[in-house]
Write a structure and sequence with these properties.
11 helices, 2 strands, 72% helix, 3% strand, Major facilitator superfamily (MFS) profile domain-containing protein, membrane
């Protein structure tokens, strides 16, 4: 391949006023030259050098001003090896337009974040009433088990969420995650013993542990680059929304002591919506590429 040579041509147009300015500048350079010649016949060289420096400075500033006011950007022509002339237009980056196509799917994924916050906050208002209902009002140890069993399940779920997402895909993992979320909510709402309550809380904890791993993963992989940073903070926002929803759901407890069962049962609704919504959501492009690359390498 022949090496390409590029010739950049620029043209400067002078109007009548700029021509007059150029003549004045030329006279200034000529006057500077005459000062330099006179220095050869004088004995005081310092005075001559000072005068010549001042005149050169004025002339240089005038040239910069002249070119700054007259030079205009022109299209650059690039000459290739075969003598072809190609017009090179200046690069203008196109404005990126944020697409709202992914927003419904991000909203579906954020149901997992809402459930994360809801299960964390729902026990705060309901613990006193469920303890009386289950007969453990004086047993603080069992009450502690009911509270902390959610975090124990979340620890297990957080370790398995990533591997499940890589094996089954992001949307299928969401649908699998809805099973322990809904089952845990149902067991907690219908519990007649402490053991059933703890099992329900563990299942709900496994569900929120898995969702804590795959919700930000899925959102970041389906979001366009220009709004990826903004959508990345949506997960934390909806966790706070879930905690707030749990606190609001506990307001009727003062008038209805058995309302705590309804509070836990309400968590099954977002779980079902999560499973149904992920059936209509697209799979992560990154996971699809990983599957394609694995199949391609395995057939080589």
């Amino acid at each position: 391949m022949q090496a390409s040579t590029y010739a950049i041509k620029a043209s400067v147009c002078f109007d009548a006023r700029n021509r007059r300015r150029a003549c004045v500048l030329a006279a200034g350079f000529a006057n500077t030259r005459s000062v330099a010649l006179n220095c050869n016949f004088t004995s005081n060289n310092s005075i001559c050098m000072r005068d010549m420096g001042m005149k050169l400075t004025r002339a240089t500033q005038g040239v910069e001003t002249l070119f700054r006011s007259t030079v205009k950007p022109r299209s650059v022509k690039a000459q290739a090896s075969a003598g072809d002339i190609e017009e090179a237009t200046p690069f203008k980056p196109q404005a990126k337009k944020s697409s709202g196509v992914v927003l419904p799917f991000v909203g579906v994924a954020c149901l997992g974040a809402i459930l994360f916050g809801y299960h964390l906050g729902v026990v705060n208002g309901a613990l006193e009433y469920l303890a009386k209902d289950l007969g453990i009002a004086e047993n603080t140890v069992l009450q502690g088990w009911i509270v902390s069993s959610l975090l124990a399940g979340a620890t297990v779920g957080s370790f398995t969420g990533g591997s499940l997402a890589d094996k089954f895909g992001r949307t299928r993992t969401f649908q699998l995650d809805a099973v322990p979320l809904a089952a845990g909510a149902f067991l907690c709402a219908t519990a007649q013993s402490v053991q059933t309550m703890i099992i329900g809380r563990v299942l709900a904890g496994i569900g929120i542990g898995i969702s804590s791993a795959i919700v930000p993963l899925y959102i970041s992989e389906i979001s366009p680059t220009e709004i990826r940073g903004a959508l990345g903070s949506v997960n934390q926002l909806f966790i706070c929304v879930g905690i707030l929803a749990a606190l609001v759901a506990g307001l009727p407890l003062a008038g209805n002591p058995l309302w705590w069962r309804t509070m836990f049962g309400l968590a099954a609704i977002p779980s079902i919506l999560l499973a149904l919504g992920m059936g209509l959501s697209p799979e992560s492009p990154r996971w699809l590429f990983q599957v394609f690359l694995h199949d391609y390498i395995s057939h080589i």
